[in-house]
Amino acid sequence: MSNGNKTSDFETKLKKAKGLGSAHHGAEHWMAQKITALANIPLVLWMVWSFINNQGMSYVEFRFWLADPFNAVMMILAVISVFYHAVLGSQVIVEDYIHIRWFRNLKLIGQKLFFFALGAACIFSVLKIAL
Amino acid sequence: MTDTSQTKVPRPLSPHLSIYNLPLTALMSITHRMTGAVLALGTLLWAAFLISAASGEEYYKMVMYAASSHMGRIILLLWSAALYFHMCNGIRHMIWDTGKFLEKDKAMRTNYVVILVAVIMTAVTWVCAYLK
User: Fold this and answer.
1) How big is the A-B interface in CB pairs under 8 Å?
2) Residue ranges of domains in chain B, CATH in brackets
3) Which of A6, B31, B81, B99 stands 20 to 30 A from B126 (CA)?
4) Among partner residues B36, B60, B132, which is closest to A89 by beta-carbon distance?
5) In this predicted structure, what is the pLDDT of residue B11?
6) Phi and psi for B40 in degrees, rounded to 5?
């Protein structure tokens, strides 16, 4: 990256830096990933444990189980934490491996919207059963 | 870089990823990403399950039927294995963040701990699932 001193180079340094360098949000991203990771541990273990206990439940039994305030809140928390963690993780993967600018941006925006939409559908489903 | 006109011979390249025999630590690292990507996709099945329960009995039964089929069980088994690997290796990442176990030999030894714990947790989960 030593083309900054060429006399034929009309681009300013700002133009080159834009969209490439640090946006000063790295620490927040990292911290959010760690906090959701930590939250995911008990939430997901609770989910696995519940699925083991709930196997073979009928439709009515399962809805009754999910309508319990504790289970409903735990399920909603699990959705929020896991989906947020998935948003952050998949963002890093795309940023690392996809270098075609338009495709990368399309994927970054698309998957973010995808996870938020899917998460909203999950939370609505829990609320519809529980309320 | 002292680039004089005499040294124009192509310089040797460091081993590229495609011909480099990855050490276990590196394999664990890429597996962490791959399991993460798989688990992110797995949210679709989780969503399908919750949405079906909210949509009506026939949809719930369809999802339950699919989940308890042979294919469904295999997918759930792989899913749980990916989950436990990602969880155990993620915990190791948190320990690494504190600066501990970063030395080469310790990183190598904790590789086996992560794999062992993930396998045990997967096994215990499925034994419990079948005993229940």
Assistant:
1) 71
2) 24-131 (1.20.1300.10)
3) B31
4) B36
5) 80
6) -65, -40
Q: What are phi and psi of B20, to 5 degrees?
A: -100, 125
Of A52, A62, A75, nearest to B132 by CB-CB distance is A52
Is A46 part of any domain? Answer: yes
* Structural domain for A98, as ranges: 26-130
Q: Sign of the C-alpha dihedral, residues A33, B36, A83, A45?
A: negative
Residue A30, min C-alpha distance to chain B (Å):
11
Is residue A121 assigned to a domain? yes
More confident residue, A36 or B106: A36
Residue in chain A nearest B32 by alpha carbon = A89
Cβ contact, residue pair A118, B44, below 8 Å: yes
Tally of CA atoms within 13 A in the half-sphere of A66 that contains its CB: 28
**Number of domain units in chain A:** 1
Tokens coding B25: 């630590």
Banded model confidence at residue B2, pLDDT cuts 50, 70, 90: low
Note whether residue A109 is domain-resident: yes
B131 touches chain A (CB under 8 A): no
- Classify residue A20: in a domain, yes or no: no
Check which CATH number belongs to the domain holding A108 and give it.
1.20.1300.10
Residue pair A41/B87 in contact (Cβ under 8 Å)? The answer is: yes
Q: Are A121 and B52 in contact (CB under 8 A)?
A: no
The tens digit of pLDDT for each residue in A4-57 reads 555 566 777 777 777 666 666 778 889 999 999 999 999 999 999 999 999 888
Reported ipTM: the value is 0.83
